[in-house]
Amino acid sequence: MSLTLEHVRRKSPEKPRRRVKFSNENTKDLQPSARKKVRKLTTKQKLIKQSFELRKKFEELSSEWQEKLFDTVDINVLRES
After folding, report:
1. Which stretches are tagged as biased composition: Basic residues (predicted)?
2. pLDDT digits (tens, 9 = 90+) for 21-68
3. How far apart are alpha carbons 39 and 16 in whole angstroms?
4. Spatial distance between the Cα atoms of 49 and 23, rounded to a whole number of angstroms
5. Whether 36 contacts 24, CB under 8 Å
6. What is the pLDDT of residue 55?
7. What is the pLDDT of residue 48?
8. What is the DSSP string of the chain?
9. Under a CB-based contact definition with an 8 Å cutoff, are residues 64 and 70 in contact?
10. How wide is the angle at C-alpha 45 spanned by C-alphas 40 and 48, nearest 5°?
11. Which member of 2, 14, 34, 55 lies 3.0 to 4.6 Å from 30 by CB, making a disulfide possible if both were Cys?
12. 3-state SS, residue 36
């Protein structure tokens, strides 16, 4: 039996294979072309990162100070109100 042209047309095409992602830690034994290059941050990205870290630090400090300055409210007082 030979395949007809109609049969070949009905056959679904193969799906493209997914590319496997490599982490930089496990690429020592791979070829240089398979390694993912680590790019340096741009000046804008560095500023954004620094700003985020400062915000996070100040938020933690403010919550610590709030805990120290303000006493916890007694449950009975909360119930009465």
Report:
1. 8-21
2. 656 666 666 666 666 677 899 999 999 999 999 999 999 999 999 888
3. 28
4. 22
5. yes
6. 98
7. 97
8. ----HHHHHHSPPPPPPPPPP--GGG-TTS-GGGSPPPPPPPHHHHHHHHHHHHHHHHHHHHHHHHHHHSPPPPHHHHHH-
9. no
10. 145
11. 34
12. coil
**Rounded to whole angstroms, how far apart are CA atoms 50 and 55?**
9
Domain definitions of the chain by residue range = 41-81
- Reading the block at residue 50, the tokens are 């620094």
* Dist. CA 30–CA 37, nearest whole Å: 13
Separation of alpha carbons 21 and 36, rounded Å: 8
- Two tokens, residue 59: 């938020």
For the question of whether the overall pTM of this predicted structure is more than 0.70, the answer is: no
Q: What pLDDT is stored for residue 44 in this prediction?
A: 96
- Measured CA to CA, the distance from residue 67 to residue 74 in angstroms comes to 15
Q: Which tokens in the block code for residue 25?
A: 């830690």
pLDDT of residue 31: 63
